[in-house]
């Protein structure tokens, strides 16, 4: 199939949206001011951030960045086809954290999201939020290339390109472009509609924005390649990936919107090739098994779901090394499952599972097959037998889901209470908890869980309404009621903080 192609990462658009220009000297300063790493928590629930107050024209603080990120992540959840697949989300976050731990000037926790979109794209926005299109997987030959894209995006964040652009924009009220940023997020869901909105917003000063963009892009490359090297990846993967972009854009016939076709100038490629050439390459090692499994999963289950492409990938993997062969068998099993050939899927997966009993990718797929065959109890037994379930959130979700399907509601409920406490930002936990509560006839808890799912999508008023119903139902204990009331206050506080973004 033809790869629809965008040469420009949206991060770049975020930069261009804000206009202004950054001189080469300023960029050099950012570069020199790169700071030593600071230990950061991996995941922080941002609900409880204090209202730090935002006044037009003032410098954007890190707290404000995080707050804006918190607002936009919720908008993004509501407006874009985010992939909530726990395996894939877990994989890109692990990879991302590995890179972040080797980045300097890390001032916010990082979160990595995957959008189900075959367009080649990735972008970063306020508060350490990095979004990757599933199309990036299709296009990456190995984990190092995927990591190079992520290192580039991480560097947009650590260099605070967005915030600095705002600071440079002294004459503009900082929040008039909130709608424009919103359309960027929309653009990831529906490139056509989103881009039309963006072009309107940008009509006029596009030309002057290009230098700004290129400076930022080059800086993100330069910082990113060092992050890549420090994290033990092959620095050569960055020019390799960029070269693929360049080749592809030359082959493309219909030039998209001007900003999307923003060329990858030869100077950028030459610069990064030169830098990579001066860096030591790591010893050759087998390709990451998790990367291959993730790529196969994306290609078989997401990104347009073209089984022809998936089959071509699987064929190619079948003649590779041992990791490739394992990934090929995993892919065959997923395709068989999708074709409702459950016996075949199960047989393929059981072989893989016997070789790696704690591997979450195989256990997860076996759970799906068992549930489809109405044998959820078997999945529960298998998961409980695996020691990996204790520390693996993906398997905990699997176990909860299998328990629900097997009618073991109380057990599911208990697992999910713990899960949502530990991972309050994962919508999967809340939607399963909602199901478990409903199955047990716990109406108040069902409403409260649904409220959390809505709050994660920024629908705070609706969430408050549901929590009020939960509190008024008289179904819960005194403690439950107090908890609902406290949560209502918290969400109202959050809505108040977010007013500044919704007023425009
Ligand atoms: Zn970029």
Run of helices and strands: HHHHEEEHHHHHHHHHHHHHHHHHHHH
Determine the fraction of residues in helical runs and give it as a percent range. 55-70%
Average pLDDT, rounded to a whole number, is 80
**Poorly predicted spans:** 1-58, 192-212, 254-262
Number of helices: 24
Strand segment tally = 3
Q: How many angstroms does the end-to-end distance come to? A: 41 Å
Strands, helices and their partners?
Layout: H1 10-17, H2 24-32, H3 62-79, H4 86-100, E1 111-115, E2 122-125, E3 129-133, H5 135-139, H6 143-158, H7 161-168, H8 178-189, H9 191-202, H10 206-230, H11 237-251, H12 266-277, H13 289-301, H14 307-318, H15 322-338, H16 342-355, H17 360-372, H18 376-385, H19 393-405, H20 409-422, H21 427-439, H22 443-456, H23 460-472, H24 478-502
Parallel strand pairs: 1-3
Antiparallel strand pairs: 2-3
Helix pairs in contact: 1-10, 3-8, 4-6, 6-10, 6-11, 8-9, 10-12, 11-12, 13-15, 14-15, 15-16, 15-17, 16-17, 17-18, 17-19, 18-19, 19-20, 19-21, 20-21, 21-22, 22-23, 23-24
Bound molecules: zinc ion.
InterPro entries: Mito/Outer_Membr_Metalloprot, Peptidase_M48, Protease_BepA
Protein name: Beta-barrel assembly-enhancing protease
Binding site for Zn(2+): 152, 156, 217
Description:
The structure is a single chain. By secondary structure, the protein is an all-alpha fold. The protein has helices at about 10-15, 25-30, 60-80, 85-100, 135-140, 145-160, 160-170, 180-190, 190-200, 205-230, 235-250, 265-275, 290-300, 305-320, 320-340, 340-355, 360-370, 375-385, 395-405, 410-420, 425-440, 445-455, 460-470, 480-500, and strands at about 110-115, 120-125, 130-135. It folds into 2 domains: about 10-275, no CATH class; about 290-500, Tetratricopeptide repeat domain (Serine Threonine Protein Phosphatase 5, Tetratricopeptide repeat, Alpha Horseshoe), CATH 1.25.40. The chain is about 65% helix and about 5% strand. Strands 1-3-2 form a 3-stranded mixed beta sheet, with helices on both faces. A hairpin with a 3-residue loop joins β2 (about 120-125) and β3. α3 (about 60-80) packs across α8 (about 180-190). The longest helix has 25 residues, at about 205-230. The chain starts with 9 loop residues before the first helix and ends with a helix. Bound molecules: zinc ion.
